[in-house]
Design goal:
Helix content: 40-55%
Radius of gyration: 18 Å
Distance between the termini: 13 Å
Structural class: alpha/beta
Strand order of the largest sheet: 2-1-3-6-7
Number of helices: 7
Largest sheet: 5 strands, parallel
Length: 207
Amino acid sequence: MKKLLAISSSPGRSHSYSRNLVHTFVDKFSQKEAEADVIIRDLVEQPIPHLDDATISAFYTPLEQLSDEQKKILALSDKLINELESADVIVIGTPMHNFSIPSGLKSYIDHVARVGRTFHYTDNGPQGLLQGKKVYILTTRGGNYSQMPMAAFDHQEPYLRTILGFIGMNDIEFIHAQGMSMGEEKSKQAVEQAIARISKTVDDLLV
C-alpha cells in the first residue's frame, strides 16, 4: 500500500486551478489504490509561519541540548518532516507567483529543509536524507514558460528541483498548465492536457 502526501499551496480557495489539479490527482490515486493512506497538507488552511530567530536557533541546537521550549518550537517542523519521511509519493500543487512559488510554500520548505533531519554535511558536501520518494509537482502559470525568451523567467521549476534534490528527492516530474491568463480557450486546453497527464501518470504509477 502506497502512502501519498498531497500539498496545496495556492492562496486561492474558491477558484484555484492548481488546487483542482491536486484534488484530481488525489481522487484518481485513491480510486486506483482504494486502501491508500493519503495525507492532505493545505498550506492555506494550515499556514506555516515564517522562520524566526528562535526556530533557526533550535534547528542548530544538538538534540541532547534542546530545552523544553525548543522542543515545542520544533514540533511543527518535526511533524512536517515525519509526513515526508512516511510518504512514498508526494504531490505538490503550486501556482507560479512572480516567476517563483507562493510564500506559503517557501515557508513550508524552510521548515523541512533542516540540517540533521533531511540533510547532513559530509566530507563530500551536503547529502539529502529523504531518498526513495516519487514527487509530482503540478503547476499553473499565467504565461507559457516552455521556450525562450520566457523560459529565462522561470524560477519556479529550477528552484523546486534544486531544493527538493538538496534534501534527497531527485525523482521529480512536473506537470505544467501554462497560459492560464491567455484566454479562456487556452486555459481550458491547458487544464485538460494537465488532467490527461495526471490520469496517465497515476495509471503508470499504480500498475
